[in-house]
Amino acid sequence: MTLEARPEVVTHRDRTGTVGTVEAPRRGRWIDVWDPEDGTFWARTGRRVARRNLWPSIFAEFLGFSVWQLWSIVVVSMPKAGFTYSTDQLFWLVALPSLVGATLRLPYTFAVPRFGGRNWTIVSALLLLVPTAGLSYFLTQPDTPFWLMALVAATAGVGGGNFASSMTNISFFFPEKEKGFALGINAAGGNLGVAVVQLVVPIVIVAGAGLSLNRAGLLWIPLIVLAAVLAWKVMANLSVATSSFRTSVTAAKRPHTWIISFLYIGTFGSFIGFSAAFPLLIKTTFPDVTGAGIAFLGALVGSVARPFGGKLADLVGGAWVTVCSFVVMGLGILAAIVSLNAGSFAGFLISFLVLFVASGAANGSTYRMIPAVFRLTTPGDPGRARREAAACIGIASAVGAYGGFLVPRGFAMSTSHFGSLIPALYVFCGFYVVCLAVTYFCYLRKGGPLSGERV
Fold first, then answer.
1. FRET pair for 13, CA 20 to 30 Å: which of 63, 70, 170, 189?
2. Residue 67: what pLDDT?
3. pTM of this prediction?
4. What is the CATH number of domain 48-243?
């Protein structure tokens, strides 16, 4: 199973007896025979090896999300540390990592087949040292020009790319019947990184005397090194983990790929966007309330809700859970507007927690829709359906992540032009109505092509 020096070509025999060759000019710990759909193989060897690869992947992805969202909590304390950036500039520092992270998700998806899951986990973990070291240094320099600080913040986007490569890698290890739960746990573990960074960093930067923002970066450096070491020691690469650019192009031509990507902007995009903006929203909207320290609750409840949304989607169908989630998200937005008009921080907080729960559940249900939609629209060719569904997951994860950029920028523009968050909230509510209508029209309406199926 373990090969430290791979030959140029290795053979692979699947459970049907078909023999093929795999070019292998690289070196490292590789598994050349892997067939989780074979019950005997899975029970004897596969499950143990898959789980051994899952938990280091969760840890690395957790750190990726933590680094990705570091600036969401750091910017709250930057004025106290002597930085004189405007509110709009602070929102830029929050938004830029999401923009870069979303853009990196597609190349990160192809990195696993090209370099191996274990190898890329090591590399992607070590890349997190760049934004953490940069943050640690430049947050001790209050005279840093904004353009340079924005560049430093943008490097945190490498953490956002980790999700795509981690999910791609784990999807190859598990059989179809266990893949949903494994991917749900993997995703939830990563999402929890947002909550943890927003909980831990405010405590760490004020520990002892004074305010030390550089600790927000230093805190993660030993954990990043540990993640790389664990991946090196424990994980493996799969020779059968292949993905072709042609398959992604084919999936990109399918209308459902872009419909689901659009919906994922409303679900995951809302989760990551509101998570990034929430601490600064509290600080700027309720300056007299010492509530920024509890901003982590939003990301926490959203992360926990994700696997439950997936489980509920397994029972009643992903489209129904997604539609209901958009209804709740719209109500949460309207409740937040009422709370802002009333000047109620408690109402504002509760409204956003409801919003986070609904968006987290919808993350799981929207992902659950993808394999069902491609299976139903590709009759008679389950292999093609699986390949294109996997490609759709990569595309949707990238497109949806742009919500992490759009949401903070929407709040910044609303505050700059109207002096209030309310116009942006109305726009978001309208967007959820459109997402609800699209989901219903495409997957639930009577007489529709998929209305008789549990998508």
1. 170
2. 96
3. 0.86
4. 1.20.1250.20
Residues of the chain with CATH 1.20.1250.20: 48-243, 245-454
Closest CA to 131 of 147, 151, 152: 152
CB 199 within 8 A of CB 68: no
pLDDT at 10: 39
CB-CB contact of 119 with 127 (8 Å): no
Q: What is the pLDDT of residue 291?
A: 63
The domain over range 245-454 is classified in CATH as 1.20.1250.20: yes
Interacting residues of 406 by C-beta distance below 8 A, sequence separation 6+ = 265, 269, 273
Whole-angstrom Cα distance, residue 136 to residue 146? Answer: 16
CA distances from 302 to 40, 51, 195, 272, 333 (A): 37, 25, 9, 9, 15
- Average the pLDDT over 184-211 and give the result: 86
Return the axis-axis angle of helices 47-68 and 87-115, rounded to nearest 10°.
160
Q: Which residue has the tokens 């219903």?
A: 440
- The Cα–Cα gap between 132 and 201 comes to 13
| DSSP code of residue 207 | S
* Weakest-pLDDT range from 4-8, 175-179, 381-385: 4-8
Render pLDDT for 93-111 as a digit per residue (tens, 0 to 9): 999 999 999 999 989 988 8
Q: What is the model's pLDDT at position 56?
A: 95
Identify residue 179 by its one-letter amino acid code. K
